Amino acid sequence: MTRIGVNLLWLVPGEVGGSEEYTVGLLGALADAEFDDLEVILYVNRRFAEVHRDLCARFTTVVAPISGTSRPLRVLAESTWLARRTRRDRVAAVHHAGGTMPILRTVPGLVTLHDLQPITDPAQFGPIKRRYIAAVAPRSLRAARRVVCLSAFVAGDAVAVAGVDPTRIALVPSGVDPAVRVPAPEQQQAALAALGLVDRRFIVYPAITYPHKNHRTLVAAFARLLGTDRRDQPMLVLTGGVGPAEEALAAEIARLGLGDSVRRPGRVPAEVLDILYRHATLMAFPSTYEGFGLPLLEAMVRGCPVVASAVGGLVEVGGDAVDALDPLDVAGWAAALGRMLDDEDHRTGAIRRGLEQSGRFRWSGSATALAATYRSVIAPSAS
């Protein structure tokens, strides 16, 4: 049996957005698959070990003496503690799942590239992160035995921006499994009642308030849908944590007089988001940049139709199942939202296409692709 280490020192729960969902979901599927020829060891920070106890219990897990919240300490730990520990544990390779590899390594490495947005769309990031990613990411990607990409869009950036050899790229898309466990009716009603959504039509958008998530276009388009009597008008539900665009979004909601029509519950538990998907009239996803777009799959597999931006990985994930449009076209968004709200035949067709499209993405297939990538790294012919 061959040992593969997975570097998760970078993964601070609640702070890395979709990267956390992808990584945790993929590792869970890897544990479910029980590949007899591979032993996976997780190297995690203290906060990850506390939040994801169930996942850690399914693997041999080694907890580093850091919380993960300090990037300098994490980078130092990767080049010292992790380098020593992986050599001691006799792993054949280390999978650095956060997009970069430490300078000092004692075993071969592979890297998951979620995106190169800090390089291709630098205006969305502060100067420290831009410079760090620009200096470290391309070097890490070129040095990796394999680069794991979630989409062909990201793989294209790896080649064009970072100079990665295309033969070293492995596509391991995110997955979504059928939502077998349906929340109890009373649980669903309680969640909806807490947000004032019982017997109300509503649009949901799950995203941290980062600038590129483009909440302002959605809010502006939503405002165009509302009449003077809002008792029977749709609601807008914005879930997700607080990001750099939080204050600007709150100001825009207030300026447009939407306070009574917008719900802001913040980051919600997975079971509550599940309920929102099931009851929403649609999910809107107006982001200006996405390497993949897991929320599209999460919505579609639960029968929630989607209106999304025609950008990046969203095009691959949504296919012809979503209504896709320019993320900055407020009038277009207003029209697309209105059509999904008012045209029942169109909405029914979008639900059917969404279920078909989401069926093409399964975690079991992603786990199989990752295991094959691990084997290719440790094979004698691997370069």
How would you characterize this protein structure?
This protein is α/β, with parallel strands linked by helices. It has two domains: 2-175 and 363-378, Glycogen Phosphorylase B (Rossmann fold, 3-Layer(aba) Sandwich); 185-358, Glycogen Phosphorylase B (Rossmann fold, 3-Layer(aba) Sandwich). It contains 16 helices and 13 strands. It has helices spanning 18-33, 46-51, 53-57, 71-88, 117-120, 127-143, 152-160, 185-194, 215-225, 246-255, 270-279, 294-300, 312-318, 330-342, 344-358, 363-378, and strands at residues 2-8, 38-44, 60-63, 93-96, 109-113, 147-149, 169-171, 202-206, 235-239, 262-266, 282-285, 306-309, 323-325. A seven-stranded parallel sheet has the order 3-2-1-4-5-6-7, sandwiched between helices. It has a six-stranded parallel sheet with strand order 10-9-8-11-12-13, with helices on both faces. β11 (282-285), α12 and β12 form a beta-alpha-beta unit. The protein is globular. It starts with a strand and ends in a 5-residue tail after the last helix.
Tell me briefly what this model is.
By secondary structure, the chain is α/β, with parallel strands linked by helices.
Main sheet: strands, sense, barrel: 7 strands, parallel
- Note the overall shape: globular
Uncertain parts: none
Order of helices and strands: EHEHHEHEEHHEHEHEHEHEHEHEHEHHH
The assigned structural class equals alpha/beta
